[in-house]
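Bit of a strange request maybe. I'm writing a small parser for structure token strings and I need a real example to test against, not something I typed by hand. Could someone generate the tokens for this chain?
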Amino acid sequence: MMAVLVVVGVLGLPAVLLRFLCVGHSCDEETATASEVPFCSLDSELRWRITAGFREGRSPEVLTVARRASIAGGTGYAGTTQPLWPSSDLDATRVPIVFSGEGVVRTPIPEGTTLTSIAPTLADMIDFERPFPDVRSGEAIDGVAGDSGPSLLLQVILKGVGSDDLEARPDAWPFLRGLMDEGAATMNADTGSLPLDPAAAISTIGTGGPPSQHGITGEFVRTGEGRLVRSFSNEAETPVIATLADDLDEQLDQRPLIGLVGSARSDWGAVGGAWYGSSSDVDEIIVSRRDQVGPAVELLSDGSVEFGADRVPDLMTVVIDGDVPKLDRGLERIVTAAEEAADGSVALVVTGTGSLASIQGAGATAIVRGTEIARDLDEALGERVTEAAVPGGVFLDQSALTDLELSEDAVIKELERLRGPEGYLFDDVWPAIAVTFARYC
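Reply from user aminoacidic:
Good idea to test on real output. This should exercise your parser:
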């Protein structure tokens, strides 16, 4: 009994786990209310998404759920639109998924289909059996893949876009609407995880597994040595599981052409490229912050590269950002170039990563920035203890906590006290280990 108590004290297990172990007389007591247990008090659907977006050792040490969808961005996030933090009223996880072109059967896609289904559905279209199927949870969407296999698989990812953004401007995307009418589509797919960091969603699209499986939980991740780095930077570790592009290139002896055009290094999660080491690589990678459509069209039209020119299936991914009309025009140009390159033998999927929040302008007056949370937390504790504030939590400087003789509990208490223009910022704050034991909720 003493040994069990020591282990529980060291790990700080949730109260619900104490009951599971029947420590002391806990099994004799009435069940505690859910609100007394961090993380477990949240709505089950919200808990499911957060669990899917969490990877132990890579995610922040302290996690949060905001009271309202009014916190966005964080340390190191640039631009006027940034990811929202998970909140009790967040409804931005709805995204479109549209399949069109050769090898696609016209059929509705079930509501609630998640981004994990995209990679396995594309694999079905070319009759490609991926190795290690048990390491990822994504399954192909029934009835979408037809009999004819295309020469070119084309993924277009609308970065920072959700179904709400499209529905707010129904006349601004005629080309995408035409693709939906002729293919397999839904406006009611789901990112399947939180937080809504594009880096995490893009890696989910590329691998067929959620962040809990591929390990790219956001723009920033921890390495095995505990260093905080940007995803897909030179210092970062590879995703835990391979992408479809990795498997395709490896299994077909590097004969497929693999291409990526994106706006940031973290967009590499769509294709990977290093999971099998030096034997597998991405043939063409272009990072262009201002314009992704032009470079993508140029790459597809380059006669020396020849995407889709033979029966060995190639994979091209374009990650584009901007407002909805611009995205729709760019999508049309990319699809036209792909069809010309592959002589019409193209299977296309279009999807989004979830809605972002504007942090400038009249509509952003109530938005609290993640950088402000980091600043206020450090001021409250009297020292800089946050390495980074990211959507959904904070990475902590463990050396600073040790020097100050502070625990994570002190950080949690100060976060719980933080207030914004509309009152307290957070509905719940908890240590990351609570997600690890979420199955006991």
